[in-house]
């Protein structure tokens, strides 16, 4: 079955460390997205990519980095510059705007 | 810039009651898409409905119905005869077709936490 796989499901990071969250899709979707969710908040867009080797900053890109070397993969790195990284991270993809967005099951990141 | 407002932070009802979740949006585009998602405690977002800006017909799917009114920029969601399994956080979201080339993601409201008590 086609879908989006996010790993790991839970991730613990020590302060000052960089960590990378994985997002893989086999839906042949061109566009991919990373969202952050904090308790009681909606989802906020971190980065998005419409095609391979191209990506754009979303509303809260500071302290994060991404790459899009393959159509299927869109990893997110949470750098030490992100001051408050503890959150729930969701990856999504879409074939084109408005058609529909498929979400992964999320990664819960905790700074210890 | 686009914006989605879900004014109801939390709603609690007794099972079998009807409940309406409100969603108000702002956009400058004439072509846009509206969505509702359900987020159960597991965290994954479950797609419920997509509506484009040119289709103002109300939609009914089982116990779920949606009322889209462009005149008031609202896209409200009603659950009829609610069940405990409906308990979740519900998000309304907007995607603009023209701004940013059309694939710059969804703008979400803050969500409404719906609690259905047995």
What would you say this structure looks like, in words?
The complex is a heterodimer of chains A (about 110) and B (about 120). With about 110 residues, chain A is mainly beta. Chain A contains no helices and 11 strands. Chain A starts with a strand and ends with a strand. The mean pLDDT of chain A is about 90. Helix content of chain B is about 0%, strand content about 50%. By secondary structure, chain B is an all-beta fold. In chain B, strand 8 (about 65-70) and strand 9 (about 75-80) form a beta hairpin. In chain B, the strands form 3 sheets. In chain B, strands 2, 5, 6, 10, 11 and 12 form a 6-stranded mixed beta sheet that branches. Chain B has strands spanning about 5, 10-15, 20, 25, 30-40, 45-50, 60, 65-70, 75-80, 90-95, 105-110, 110-115. Chain B has no helices and 12 strands. The N and C termini of chain B lie far apart (about 40 Å). The interface of A and B includes residues 92 and 101 of A.
Q: Describe the oligomeric state of these chains in a short phrase.
A: heterodimer
Could you give the distance between the termini of chain A?
36 Å
Tally the beta strands of chain A. Answer: 11
Average pLDDT, all residues of chain A: 92
In short:
The complex is a heterodimer of chains A (112) and B (118). By secondary structure, chain A is an all-beta fold. Chain A has strands at 4-7, 10-13, 19-25, 31-37, 43-51, 54-57, 64-66, 76-78, 87-94, 101-103, 107-111.
